[in-house]
Sequence to fold (141 residues):
Amino acid sequence: MSKQPVCNPDKIVFERIAARGLVIGGGVFWIIAAFAARFSFGGEGVVDSVGGAIYPFAAAVVVLAVGWFYERAAAVLLFAASIAVLVWGVLFAWEPTVWLVMTTVLVAPMTVSGIFFLLASRMERICALVGVPAATVDSAS
Fold:
């Protein structure tokens, strides 16, 4: 006997907040890290350092904007970025400490955020199948 899927708007809200929170938190972390690395260790000025921080900012904004409307597409972007980081590590033969840092503060949060986006998308489809209008699901957030 198969279990009937149950619509849970509160679960959608939690999954969306968690996914978006990880994207925002990761974006803020990497913006600060990119700025600080160029400013402190690279000896560059403020303007050049801000220029280097634009890339993580743009990436976070794109994933957040896509994820706001297309959760599965955002999940694919996050999973692809996680794989790209792993390939980057292999190609540049990172030492174990770099692997630990990049896996902990980049790959894991992107992967978990992608999973939350997928779970929210799945629950929204379940709610649509059982007849809960999308407005009801969205108003819970």
The chain has one domain: 10-134. The mean pLDDT is 88. Residues 3 and 97 are 45 Å apart (CA to CA).
